[in-house]
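Following up on my earlier thread - several people asked me to post the actual chain instead of describing it. Fair enough. Here it is, all 313 residues.
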Amino acid sequence: MRIRNPPKPTPDAPIIIYLPCGFRTDEHDRPIHNPLNTLALSAHATVVEIGYRLSPKSPYPKPIHDVIAGYDWIRKHLSPSPNKRDVDGYSNTKYAFPPLRPKQRIGVCGELAGGSLAAMLALAECNPNGITAAALGNPIVDWSSPLQTPVSCDGENLNRSIKNLHTTSFAKAEHRYDPFASPLLFFRTPAYELPTPSLYGTSFSLEANNGSSNSDTSTELVPRRRSHRKYPPLDSGLRFPATRIDVGPGFTMKDQAIEFAELMQRSVNLYEEKSEASRDRIEVVERGEDGGLWKEKDVMEIGRWMGEMLRRD
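Reply from S.P.:
Thanks for posting it. Predicted structure:
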């Protein structure tokens, strides 16, 4: 993990968890900048990058475990309440950690694979003592659906990286169908049946509207009827954070990101008390050209937004 503090940090400064995109991008695809410094300055917050593992040798669910372990470390070491009575008494509550310092809040942001993991963390840890703001850039929120072609993003190197990420990040088919890997599935059932295990392994690739392996054996994905799921569970104490989802107009997974936002807002409308604060809490922003990846000015804007959200009463 890497940590950046803002100039003149205060004990109750917000904490922003930053999750990188999941692979290195070519220097011609996007300007080189330090997102941790940019976020710390623009949000005036402590920023912590969790360097999760994601590669063919470290497929899902390892990135999920890494992010949750990093979050646990942050809660235990960077944000516990200084009030001893709060710390001693928290074991009698349903929450895993002592209360935050007064006025302190935690947010999370990330793009692409990092956006997927940020969405997972935001949905799983959105109790009153957890994540209260999330910024997601082109999040991959449904790994179980085919990767449409051609991939439209900033640069051919990035095109290949996303395709490789989609193909090699899962050792088992069923791991794609886990809502912690595909957060869209917290809100609805998968759009395709689970492929036959004998035809689906580490070499199996989800492309276009069919599945094909590198061997002579191939199979078509079988569509299934989608149905809504209720999330969060009633009486869970979970309340979705303020969320903004940035999408590029040409990003290949734009539709699933928009569907994710719509289903989050639907859940807010159905299961939370009607109030002014609950309206349009989930915001979609179409950003830039083509893929719309975050550049330095975008990260600065996101930092300002996070700083505002994390200081709201």
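Residues 254-271 form the longest helix (18 residues). That should answer part of your original question.
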